[in-house]
Specification:
Order of helices and strands: EEEEEEEEEEEE
Helix content: under 10%
Shape: globular
Largest sheet: 5 strands, antiparallel
Oligomer: single chain
Structural class: mainly beta
Distance between the termini: 28 Å
Number of strands: 12
Length: 171
């Protein structure tokens, strides 16, 4: 992986990154992600200081290069607390078919987290998964009418626990 227009350090498993110019990014290459299985990208982040550009754009390369049409945008909460960004990569930023599903394997991801210099963010993880993350709250509450409301007699839910030091582990 590499970064552009940023400085980075890490402590206790958390990546602290500061934008030094416009279009700060984190690039992860040499990937081999099957887009027909893994369609969600999730990021655990925390705004620390600087300009509050409340959005992240994630680009993917499936052999056709990085382009706006092969990207998705998400709104970030800039209140200084830890949050999750959950992106369905099968739909691009303009709600069209991004080419993620049905296309060749994903070989690279680029996370554009800031459009201005001077923003400081912390990242705990970047995750590609089969399903979207339902909640970032301590208690899971799913009401009738929610897309994750169980319609069958039995429903499986998977959890990911964040412990006191910020490290991610599964339960």
């Amino acid at each position: 992986w590499w970064i552009a227009n940023s400085t980075v350090n890490s402590a206790a498993g958390v990546l602290n990154i500061s934008s030094t110019a416009n279009d700060a990014m984190i690039y992860m290459g040499n990937l081999n992600i099957d887009p027909n299985i893994y369609r969600y990208v999730q990021v655990r982040y925390r705004y620390v200081s600087g300009p509050t550009t409340p959005g992240m754009q994630v680009f993917f390369d499936n052999g056709s290069g990085l382009a706006e049409a092969r990207s998705q945008r998400g709104v970030m909460n800039m209140d200084g607390n830890w949050h999750y960004l959950n992106l369905d990569m099968s739909i691009n930023y303009s709600n069209g078919n991004s080419g993620w599903v049905g296309g060749p394997n994903i070989t690279a991801l680029r996370f554009d987290f800031c459009e201005q210099a001077g923003m400081v963010m912390e990242f705990d993880f970047f995750l590609v998964s089969e399903d979207r993350m339902v909640s970032d709250q301590a208690n899971l509450v799913i009401n009738e009418g929610d897309p994750d409301y169980p319609t069958a007699t039995s429903t499986d839910y998977y959890t990911r626990k964040i412990d006191d030091c910020g490290a991610t582990s599964c339960v």
